[in-house]
Design brief:
It is a single chain. This protein is an alpha/beta fold and 245 residues long. It has a single domain, classed as Rossmann fold (3-Layer(aba) Sandwich), CATH 3.40.50.720. 47% of the residues lie in helices and 15% in strands. It has a seven-stranded parallel β-sheet, sandwiched between helices. Helix 1 links the parallel strand 1 and strand 2. Helix 3 packs parallel to helix 4. The longest helix has 29 residues. The two termini are 34 Å apart.
């Protein structure tokens, strides 16, 4: 699929990797539906930059992805505004430290609702429109920790592991018109406050001996959208080799 003139939805587009993905899609000619929840100022800044730099349409859509009703309304609002949707990138994610001994029901709900339930219902809303259009791409931003979980982030890691199952299931449900794939970032953007000592330890534990950056993830997403229509249900690790270390 070529992105020129296509409509792309990016959740969590206001910051970090989601922002980089949205900008790259606009640069390739896509019209953007920019989802945000609390980061309206950053989302508006991104939309303004896209319009100024690439002369592309960029429209803001607010939704709390932990609320299933708002997720469905988000998809419906995008379809009303654009008519068609061709690309959906699930970048938004809940990521909170939850030590095993202290994890509560609310921790599980927060991660499962945003990281797993929301991608399902947004895909359920937009996927049929893609099939009707005759083509579509859905990209899930998972995590290498879905396969090698962190002990202090069990609800998060389990939600991402579930997302990989959903990735394969949606690839079957939406075939043949829509290809559904997952990108599994490794140490790309470390959490704010990561100490220099820990940062260096992570770098040394990565076979390529460097940390990743958002552009590494962007290139993977662009490949899955524009590089091939013969890839679906795949899990592409962008982790510097951490899974094999």
């Amino acid at each position: 699929m070529k992105l020129q003139g296509k409509v792309a939805v990016v959740t969590g587009a206001a910051k970090r990797v989601g922002r980089a993905i949205a900008g790259a899609l606009a640069q390739r000619g896509a019209r953007l539906a920019i989802h945000y929840n609390r980061s309206r100022r950053e989302a508006q800044r991104l939309a303004d930059e896209i319009k100024t730099t690439y002369d592309r349409e960029a429209v803001l859509f607010k939704a709390d992805l932990s609320n299933a009703g708002q997720v469905r309304k988000l998809g419906q609002a995008v379809l009303r505004r654009f008519g068609d949707v061709h690309v959906l990138v699930h970048s938004a994610s809940a990521y909170e430290r939850t030590p095993f001994e202290k994890a509560e029901i609310e921790d599980w709900d927060a991660h499962l609702e945003t990281n797993l339930r929301a991608p399902f219902f947004l895909s359920q809303t937009l996927g049929p429109a893609m099939k009707k259009a005759g083509e579509g791409k859905i990209i899930h931003l998972a995590d290498w920790a879905a396969k090698r979980p962190y002990i202090d982030y069990i609800p998060y890691c389990v939600s991402k592991a579930g997302l990989l199952c959903l990735n394969a299931a949606l690839a079957k449900a939406l075939a043949p018109e829509v290809q559904v794939n997952a990108v599994l970032p490794g140490p790309v953007l470390l959490p704010e406050g990561t100490s220099p000592k820990l940062r260096e330890a992570i770098r040394q534990a990565t076979p390529v001996k460097r940390l990743g950056n958002p552009e590494d993830v962007v290139r993977a997403v662009l490949f899955l959208i524009e590089g091939s229509d013969f890839v679906t249900g795949a899990e592409l690790a962008v982790d510097g080799g951490r899974l094999i270390a």
